[in-house]
């Protein structure tokens, strides 16, 4: 019998990897009477807690939480499973699934409660990542669907074999066919016979990643010819082309206008006088011989002030060379041309425009005119600039993000080539999670923003501060004169963070842990710097935080 007890005790103590607590129930108190080796290893408790109550061992918040669970087991006389978190000996927050099981004596009185604590940290982290990925996927799909559905251009989605999958509303308006009617048909099913070979050529080029704009004609459901400008864009998933987007702009009206111009200049004038685009006619030398009245409304200048000037009159100096070049190429190749450029508005300065130029030839195939239709694309350019900004900056803080930081660091390594000293700082807040838990995520967001500001306050103007994620930030220190200079910056960051924080009227006290990687006259990789600084950071964390650690590489 003694051997059985010893064997049982050894199994509980060492053989089970889950943490096991045996709590004695005595006079409404729960007293630690046994813990196994896993408790010592993962929770950091020792035999000193044996004989003590829960209240004597854990914090008041934790005690009240556990007391409710243990009282429930005692009252219901049944097992209870719940999830919880606890700090590891390394200061990390770990998540656990706890099972409380009551033990009864012969009189059916609960004398002990056995708590089995299973570490589920990996599962919880995976669940959170999965949920975040799901949210991002849903948002991305909604954004894509909105762009797809409400695009003024017709958009058709093809598989890699050229069969239609779906189309947007504009496609139905353009062709008369619904998305369901188009699905499963070859991409060139509506293309007129004379243009099918051209269509096949550009489809193959798109599959090879070569993107070109081309014109074709199709027959709509009413058997009418529709003139289109088409762009084929590959759909890339995991670095593989899995399909093609066909983006079609109906230019039938423009073609008809051009034909009417060839037939009658008077009819052309009627059209241009009612156009909201800028319509310009150039002679062989690129001189302006006609501009539409819309110049006054769109650019603020009387159209007469342009006549007789070169086409690049009032264009941005940096864009003149390219516009002149493409004008000559179009004139000599007899092909239409597209160009983006900046031109001067009378009161608003430089505005972005996009032109579509078409060379016109007489019946002897001699160049006669260049008809240029251009429009203001400032809003589109602003949107592209905004997209570029958000691709490289953190939405919450406005600071550079990981992508921008890595690119900038790599550029710095290439430019210095080991001629100057570099340093990298990684830092995060100590005990940031309790701020979120106690005050909510909105408060946590304000803390993150303030953290970034405090870092910026003490670094140099030439230094780059970026947010990696969560409360983790990174600083690139280029052109460092000495190790002492790095130490001074790291020390000032720690001191600045340690000052009292007033967030939305609430005063809180936070500290930061700072890890520094320093390289003197030696070219290292970005990841080498990050790895070294991260190791230094966790040394500080393990020693209580609120400090910095510098490691030379």
From TrEMBL:
PAS domain location: 140-210, 264-334
Annotated protein name in UniProt: PAS domain S-box-containing protein/diguanylate cyclase (GGDEF) domain-containing protein
Gene3D superfamilies registered for this protein in UniProt: 3.30.70.270, PAS domain
Domain GGDEF residue range list: 420-553
Pfam families, sorted: GGDEF, PAS_3, PAS_4, PAS_9
Family matches, as SMART domains: GGDEF, PAC, PAS
Occurrences of domain PAC (ranges): 80-132, 337-389
PANTHER family: BIOFILM ARCHITECTURE MAINTENANCE PROTEIN MBAA (PTHR44757:SF2), DIGUANYLATE CYCLASE DGCP (PTHR44757)
């Amino acid at each position: 019998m003694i051997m059985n007890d010893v064997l049982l005790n050894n199994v509980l103590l060492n053989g089970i990897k889950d943490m096991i607590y045996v709590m004695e129930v005595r006079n409404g108190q729960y007293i630690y009477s046994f813990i196994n080796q896993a408790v010592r290893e993962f929770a950091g408790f020792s035999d000193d807690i044996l004989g003590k109550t829960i209240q004597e061992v854990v914090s008041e918040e934790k005690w009240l939480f556990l007391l409710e669970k243990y009282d429930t087991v005692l009252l219901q006389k049944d097992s209870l499973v719940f999830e919880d978190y606890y700090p590891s000996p390394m200061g990390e927050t770990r998540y656990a699934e706890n099972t409380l099981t009551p033990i009864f004596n012969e009189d059916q009185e609960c004398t002990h409660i056995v708590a089995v604590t299973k570490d589920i940290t990996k599962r919880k982290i995976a669940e959170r990542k999965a949920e975040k990925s799901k949210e991002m996927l849903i948002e991305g799909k909604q954004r894509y669907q909105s762009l797809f559905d409400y695009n003024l251009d017709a958009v058709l989605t093809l598989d890699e074999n050229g069969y239609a999958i779906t189309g947007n509303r504009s496609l139905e308006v353009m062709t008369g066919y619904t998305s369901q009617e188009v699905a499963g048909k070859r991409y060139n099913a509506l293309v007129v016979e004379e243009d099918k070979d051209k269509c096949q050529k550009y489809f193959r080029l798109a599959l090879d990643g070569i993107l070109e704009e081309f014109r074709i004609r199709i027959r709509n459901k009413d058997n009418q010819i529709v003139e289109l400008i088409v762009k084929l864009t590959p759909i890339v998933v995991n670095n593989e082309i899995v399909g093609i987007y066909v983006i079609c702009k109906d230019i039938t009206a423009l073609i008809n206008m051009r034909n009417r111009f060839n037939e009658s200049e008077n009819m052309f004038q009627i059209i241009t006088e009612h156009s909201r685009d800028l319509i310009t006619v150039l002679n062989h030398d690129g001189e302006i011989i006609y501009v539409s009245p819309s110049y006054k409304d769109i650019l603020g200048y009387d159209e007469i002030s342009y006549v007789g000037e070169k086409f690049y009159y009032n264009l941005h100096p940096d864009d003149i060379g390219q516009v002149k070049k493409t004008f000559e190429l179009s004139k000599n190749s007899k092909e239409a041309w597209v160009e983006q450029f900046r031109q001067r508005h009378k009161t608003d300065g430089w505005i972005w425009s996009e032109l579509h130029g078409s060379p016109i030839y007489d019946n002897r195939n001699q160049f006669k005119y260049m008809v240029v239709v251009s429009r203001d694309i400032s809003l589109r350019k602003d949107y592209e600039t905004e997209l570029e900004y958000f691709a490289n900056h953190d939405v919450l803080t406005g600071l550079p993000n990981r992508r921008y930081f890595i690119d900038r660091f790599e550029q710095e390594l290439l430019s210095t080539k080991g001629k100057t000293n570099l340093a990298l700082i990684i830092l995060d807040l100590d005990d940031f999670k309790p701020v979120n838990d106690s005050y909510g995520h909105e408060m946590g967001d304000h803390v993150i923003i303030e953290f970034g500001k405090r870092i910026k306050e003490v670094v140099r103007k030439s230094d780059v501060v970026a947010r990696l994620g969560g409360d983790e930030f990174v600083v690139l220190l280029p052109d460092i004169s000495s190790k002492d200079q790095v130490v001074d910056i790291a020390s000032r960051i720690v001191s600045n963070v340690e000052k009292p924080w007033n967030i939305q009227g609430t005063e809180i006290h936070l500290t930061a842990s700072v890890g520094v990687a320093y390289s003197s006259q030696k070219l290292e990789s970005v990841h080498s710097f990050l790895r070294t600084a991260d190791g230094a950071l966790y040394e500080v964390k393990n020693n209580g935080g609120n400090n910095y650690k510098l490691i030379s590489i």
